[in-house]
Write a structure and sequence with these properties.
The chain is an alpha+beta fold and about 475 residues long. It folds into three domains: about 90 residues; about 120 residues, Immunoglobulin-like (Sandwich), CATH 2.60.40; about 160 residues, Roll (PH-domain like). About 40% of the residues lie in helices and about 30% in strands. The protein is built from ten helices and 19 strands. The longest helix is centred in the first third of the chain and has 41 residues.
Length: about 475
């Protein structure tokens, strides 16, 4: 249970807000000065010069005062949160007003505003490159690399426009919880209220995801990574989405395993978050919404082992299960996920093009050599991933009291054997994911040995229900 905020996290966040305000102050000062100069030029009759100066002044002042306001707002929120923590030390879900009320709004408006802010800032910084390097491109093809930044700006604008169209069509959505909070070893239940006709969607998909958010670095070097720890997904049958007060009511019910990790937002540089996503396949623009939900251990948490899930055999699977001499064999063929394999191959080609560009068009220097070395390392990593996805297969044979795991590559095989008596359990693990926290996890089946070792007995299974079914089949074969 998260009973108090660690002091290092408090100091880090306070320092971050102080640096933000310190960084923003020069922008605000430059903006105010430029506005003053622009007004002076306007009064002097120099309208063209005044227009450009006023534009720059408004941009710099907007960025500066906007960041200062964000820093000040963060200070107020921190003081409020500390008061709530003192009042509810054993109930961290009471530290946020929406969690305490069990009435959570979607992130649609925030995502749209963030998309527009980022797109405008990026284009403001990158568009001048079109004019600065206009003459240089004719002299050196190496300067064409700078076209990448305005191109990204166009993509960001398209993304912001699409989010705006979705928000205009559907507005915001609300998730009303049946009980507060969602419980580890229990359930998350409630209803999503959305502004569309319940008869419109062709399908409605719900996802509950546990994420480990890790942030590192600072300034331009700051990076954020979201690793999927656990996910469950369900698709509603036709008619399960009902009519609601302003459109549709979508029922939500997820069982949460007893070994899941609870929410931890004490330090957002190393946090555990739970996200509830809903997607409805609609004519025209699809409906999509995301909610931050509280999942914690409480007195209602079950400590007993989760009941086995009843899962039907998958249809049209590339993974085969067949009888073997005295047992069962599981065959994981090469290229069983052609979509993700093709995506990684395309990424390899793009990355290799970057390597070729640096090696061919930029003059020799220490910095260029460092860039080329960096790109070559990336090429090697991506090439290994491409080989694994297209050409490596796995076979797991469970027979004669032992598990044999064979891996093959273009006719070359190597194997590992484990006695069935040495296997204490089997677990699913997210071994790979495409995209960030909203991306697609691919599951591995792990054999847990009695001495604590872990052995992978099946890799890169896209469908979780298929992974669960395969794991249960392996358990039965091992215990037979």
């Amino acid at each position: 249970m998260n009973k108090s905020r660690p002091a290092p996290a408090v100091r880090s966040q306070r320092l971050g807000r102080f640096i933000l305000i310190l960084f923003a102050t020069p922008f605000a000062a430059i903006g105010v000065t430029a506005i003053g100069v622009g007004l002076y030029r306007l009064a002097d009759g120099r309208v063209t010069e005044a227009a450009g100066t006023l534009f720059l002044g408004l941009v710099f002042a907007g960025i500066g005062f906007g960041l200062i306001a964000a820093g000040r707002s963060g200070q107020k929120e921190e003081r409020k949160k500390q008061q709530l923590q003192s009042a509810h030390p054993d109930a961290p879900w009471m530290w946020r007003d929406d969690w305490a009320a069990g009435h959570i709004s979607s992130s649609a408006r925030t995502s749209m505003a963030a998309a527009w802010g980022f797109a405008i800032l990026w284009n403001f910084m990158s568009t001048p490159l079109l004019f600065v390097f206009a003459g240089i491109w004719k002299q050196s093809r190496a300067a064409l690399i700078f076209l990448f930044f305005p191109l990204v700006g166009v993509c960001l604008l398209v993304w912001a426009i699409r989010l705006s169209m979705e928000f205009r069509k559907f507005g915001g959505s609300d998730f009303v919880m049946s009980s507060i909070p969602g419980v580890v070893g229990g359930k998350l239940s409630g209803s999503i209220y959305a502004a569309f006709n319940p008869r419109s969607p062709r399908s409605v998909t719900l996802k509950l995801t546990c994420l480990h958010r890790v942030a590192g670095g600072s300034g331009d070097d700051r990076s954020v990574r979201e690793n999927i720890l656990w996910r469950d997904e369900r698709t509603l049958e036709v008619g399960e989405a009902e009519a609601g007060p302003s459109g549709s009511r979508i029922p939500v019910l997820f069982r949460i395993p007893s070994d899941a990790t609870e929410t931890n937002i004490n330090n957002m540089d190393n946090a555990v978050l739970w996200k509830l996503d809903v997607h409805a396949d609609m004519p025209g623009l699809d409906y999509a919404a995301q909610f931050d939900v509280p999942i914690f251990r409480t007195k209602d948490s079950s400590l007993s082992e989760d009941q086995p899930q009843t899962v039907e055999p998958p249809q049209n699977s590339r993974i085969r299960v067949q009888p073997a001499a005295g047992g069962t064999e599981f065959i994981f063929p090469a290229a069983r996920n052609p979509g993700v394999a093709a995506s990684v191959t395309l990424l390899l080609l793009i990355w290799s093009a970057g390597t070729w560009f640096f090696a061919s068009f930029l003059g020799p220097s220490v910095i260029v050599s460092i860039y080329i070395a960096f790109f070559l390392i990336g090429d090697i990593v991506l090439l290994l991933a491409v080989i694994m996805m297209w050409f490596v297969s796995d076979r797991v044979a469970i027979e004669a009291g032992r598990v044999t795991i064979r891996r093959g590559f273009l006719g070359i095989t190597w194997s590992r054997r484990i006695a069935c008596a040495d296997v204490s359990d089997l677990k699913l693990n997210v071994g790979m994911q495409m995209g960030g926290g909203s991306g697609t996890p691919y599951y591995d089946i792990q054999l847990i040995c009695r001495d604590g070792r872990k052995r992978t007995a099946g890799r890169q299974i896209r469908n979780k229900r298929e992974a669960v079914w395969l794991m249960h089949q392996m358990k039965q074969a091992i215990r037979a």
